[in-house]
Every structure is written in structure tokens, then in C-alpha cells.
């Protein structure tokens, strides 16, 4: 019998730019959706849906989700 796997919890660290953008989110209708996505990233950074895409160029090594949430694992 296989034992259940414990969930890995990732640490979410915000860049200075993300901290500034969070203030803008607080006054928009996207705050709840952004918080939902951040909670998902803490446990399953590659879970779909919602879909994500691997970014290229200057942002190589990062991923993007809905509403331009960019993150690195």
C-alpha cells in the first residue's frame, strides 16, 4: 500500500516591484483572484488549470499566469 505524499509548501517571496504592484491590486477588482493564484503557487506552482506559460528572453526561467502574475520556482 502506498503512503500518502505530504504536500510541499513553497515560500512565496515578493520583489520590490511586486510589493508596489500589490498596492495597485488592492484598489482593483483583481485582488481576490491574485490572492487565489498566490495560494495555489504555495502548494502547486505547476498545477493547471489555470494554465501557465514559460517565459523567454529577459524573463527566461520565469513563468506567467493569468493577469500577468510572473513567478520563478
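-> sequence recovered:
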Amino acid at each position: 500500500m502506498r503512503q500518502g505524499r505530504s504536500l510541499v509548501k513553497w515560500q512565496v517571496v515578493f520583489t520590490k516591484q511586486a510589493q508596489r504592484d500589490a498596492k495597485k491590486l488592492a484598489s482593483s477588482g483583481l485582488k481576490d483572484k491574485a490572492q487565489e493564484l498566490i495560494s495555489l503557487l504555495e502548494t502547486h506552482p505547476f498545477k493547471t488549470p489555470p494554465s501557465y506559460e514559460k517565459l523567454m528572453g529577459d524573463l527566461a526561467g520565469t513563468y506567467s499566469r493569468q493577469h500577468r502574475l510572473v513567478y520563478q520556482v
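The first strand starts at residue 53 and ends at 54.
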